[in-house]
Amino acid sequence: MTLRIDMHSHFFPAITREEAARLDAAQAPWLAIDPGGETGMIMSGNQAFRPVTRALWDPQRRIEELDKLGVDVQLMCATPVMFGYRYRGDVTLQWARAMNDRALEMCSVAPSRLMVLAQVPLQDIDLACEEASRAFAAGHRGVQIGNHVGPKDLDDEGLVQFLTHCANEGIPVLVHPWDMMTDARMKHWMLPWLVAMPAETQLSILSLILSGAFERIPRSLKLCFAHGGGSFSFLLGRVDNAWRERDIVRKDCPNLPSSYVDRFSVDSAVFDPKALTLLVEVMGEERVMLGSDYPFPLGEKRIGSLIEEHAGFDSRSKARMLGANAHEFFGLS
Fold it and tell me: Which terms are listed as keywords in the entry (predicted)?
């Protein structure tokens, strides 16, 4: 039987408004659970942010759903609105520790089935490194970070320092797009999620490649980008062409951009067989891991079905992407 490990899913604990107020009474996220207990709303202060269902905060319900879906192991990470990057580092450190401890409590319901990635106060690199190491030692399987901190992309020297710390400590890193670039032109139809979110992920990858940051980060870093790496795979040919033709593109990047695909992995959340074919052709099957974005509406409803039902992959390739790659990436026993 093929092992299925979903390495990209989200959680949001039953944070009360009083708990959120310790971070920021006006904007910090908390959970308003409906009277029936099956649905709720993530709130940002007084503002409704996102409707959610019980599996997001109830680990027992999550296990019941994973049983129905045939998922053996699921790695959870914070809903990005929980990051708290806009606040003072020391304040966010306390918030991150509390959220990370709550996450481990959720996993304790079924520790062989539910595992978690930590969040860190990425606006303060020293504190981020401290919490990444603490959480990893406490049982987290890695860290999830947002793809930028305000105007700082992943090529920022502080963020390169953080990635280097994780490489040296053996801490896997999942990069998740958040706080998407947008303006008044993206006002309807979830366009920030459909247009800006894939662009954010591509921006993060290219920031590391074209800046030469990958030349300074140890090759031991286990780095993964969510949502199939966004628009990166489809547009990589354009980037290579620009590198060949324009010195301004290659001035900090000593090697062809496509030569860096062996420095990171991606998840499989692309929702289309042809897109998955291209993703595997670009990245290699050893660098694609099952990721569903569960339990949100834009996630894969039948977790793993895109890989399992793909006509172009043999059973060995499917087994790698469904579980073996994540098993190795996160060092699972």
Answer: Decarboxylase, Hydrolase, Lyase, Metal-binding, Zinc
Give the integer Cα–Cα distance in Å for 124 and 85: 9
**Third-level CATH fold of 59-329:** TIM Barrel (3.20.20)
Q: In sequence order, which residues have a C-beta less than 8 Å from that of residue 316 and are 6 or more positions away? A: none
SS3 at position 279: helix
Q: 226 CB contacts (<8 Å, ≥6 apart)?
A: 8, 174, 175, 176, 177, 201, 266, 267, 269, 291, 293
User: How many whole angstroms separate alpha carbon 27 and alpha carbon 95?
Assistant: 14
What is the sign, positive or negative, of the torsion defined by CA atoms of 10, 15, 19, 24? positive
Cβ atoms 316, 286 nearer than 8 A: no
C-alpha 174/C-alpha 144 separation (Å) is: 5
* Nearest to 276, CA basis, from 301, 300, 312: 312
Q: pTM of the prediction?
A: 0.96
**Would you call the peptide bond into 192 cis, given omega within 30 degrees of 0 as the criterion?**
no
Tell me the pLDDT tens digit for each residue of 224-251. 999 999 999 999 999 999 999 999 999 9
Nearest Cα to Cα of residue 266 among 203, 223, 328: 223
pLDDT tens for residues 167-197? 999 999 999 999 888 877 887 888 988 999 9
Burial bucket for residue 248 (CB in 10 Å: 0-12, 13-18, 19+): exposed
